[in-house]
Amino acid sequence: MTKEELIQRLDDLEWEDFEVKRAKTDTPKNARETVSAFSNTSGGWIIFGISQNGKEFKITGVDNPEKIEQDFTSSLRGETYNIKITPECVKHKFDEGVVLAFKIPPSNKKPVYFNNPKNTFIRTASGDQRATREEIDAMYRDQAYGTMTSVTIADSDISDLNKHSIERYRDYLSRFNPSHRYTKFTEKELLEKTQVVIQGRVSYAGLLFFGKEDSIQRRFPDFRIDLLEIPGTSYADAKIRFTFRLEEQENLWEYYFTLFDRLRQRLNLPFQLSTEGFAIENYPQLEAIREALVNMLMHADYFSPGKSRIRIFDDRIEFWNPGSPPKSIEYLIKADITIPRNPIIAKLFRVVKLAENAGFGFDKMIGGWSQYTKNAPEFLKDIDSTTAIFNFPIELIRTLTNGLDTELIRSKGGKTSEKTSEKTSEKTSEKTSEKTSEKILKLILENNKITILEMTELIGVTQRSIERNIQKLQEENKLKRIGPDKGGYWETKDN
Q1: pLDDT by position in tens, the chain (length 495)
Q2: CB neighbours of 282 closer than 8 A, spacing ≥ 6?
Q3: What CATH architecture does domain 418-492 belong to?
């Protein structure tokens, strides 16, 4: 930092990485809080010999710069802090006096505190704030970034896994990445190769991805991925809390399809089939949202009390995730490196081509959404969470706000209740079911020997949803099954 840069910074009101202390005759005690805060966030400069009064800054200088520098650096390398800190030290001589600048680097061994863990601070806006218990816990978990879900569970075995989810994964792999060598593996070999099972025990990642609901809930009592549709641009202007809330699913693999189907519907995309009977989904905005969804599932901190959630407002989609990446968002976008929090989960998604082989997928999210809206998504990083925001184009906002939810709110004159919310959710579900049943009939008309598993992949919903819709179609005499599950075929009233 040159003298010119220092003078320029004195006129800058952005103080996120810059803090001044008067420190006329001694090292100020509140410098310890700033050292902790800078170490636990993105680093920054502490400058002694400058006083601040509101937005006014004045060079006052330090009386004994050699002693103050030695005392301060000795405290950083001594017993005051739980780790040794090595700053960059710069001395500047002005007419008003000597100014000392110390660059505190971000630590890779967080939390950094003085005396005891209660004295852990973080940098927010331009101030130092004491970290909460949850934020401190997140820092400890981040010390084991990329390893926690790779640990095996002592009292586990393959019976904790959902066989249907594994079969569905293998079927998806064989159809969407048929040349991959894993397609030749037995179920046992696949689970061991992907480290879902390690020496007979299930890894935490494997349980989250393929586990049975009861088995997951025993280890993660409040496991869920939340999705809410809010009729407004914020909770404040929403007349009712939500018009749709996603039902809980068995595991991450089942959550992926249910979440993606709901997100796809909200983009208002036409459903089309190729001549081979496969769904045509060549939409850059859909790829951006798919990447954001997979990214969220791969990088969530599943040991955090916070739960991954998606909020769909009238004007945007927000993905919020517990856990913060190990580097800044800007660095990850430029470097395009892969540092997954949950490497086993990341690999499982990559094997079936639902995730990028390198990087965090920012290029696909930014490029796809920008092509759709002319604006890039926003990415926010906090001490213990990340948020991705995808703002809708004005045309889609008009389409969405002219739909069922807005009409229901208007018809009630803004007076709604939980009962109204439930009715709205039911009508929304019925509307969704009608769309799913229509897709089922289209697929059957193209191929009357199609299996339920193939329908789940092509339509992007759960097997239970397909089975429920088929049962409804059969009750309405619109669909009939001829012959056994293997070797049989479907018959519709249009056949």
Answers
A1: 454 555 565 544 334 467 889 898 999 989 999 999 988 877 888 999 998 887 788 899 999 999 999 999 999 998 999 999 999 898 888 888 999 989 888 887 889 999 999 999 988 755 788 988 888 887 887 776 667 888 999 999 999 999 999 999 999 999 999 999 899 999 999 999 999 999 999 999 999 999 999 999 999 998 999 999 999 888 877 888 889 999 999 999 999 999 999 998 888 776 665 554 555 667 889 999 999 999 999 999 999 888 999 999 999 999 999 988 877 778 777 765 566 788 899 989 999 999 865 555 788 899 999 988 888 999 998 878 899 999 998 766 655 555 444 433 333 333 333 343 444 444 444 444 447 888 888 888 888 888 887 787 677 666 667 877 888 888 888 888 888 766 788 888 765
A2: none
A3: Orthogonal Bundle (1.10)
Give the whole-angstrom CA distance, residue 423 versus residue 218. Answer: 33
Pairing mode of beta strands 88-94, 56-59: unpaired
The DSSP call for residue 274 is -
CATH of domain 223-411: 3.30.565.60
Domain 3-131 CATH assignment equals 3.40.109.10? no
Residues in contact with 122: Cβ distance below 8 Å, sequence separation at least 6, in sequence order: 37, 40, 41, 128, 129, 131, 135, 383
Single pTM value for the model: 0.61
Amino acid at 183: T
Domain map of the chain by residue range? 3-131, 223-411, 418-492
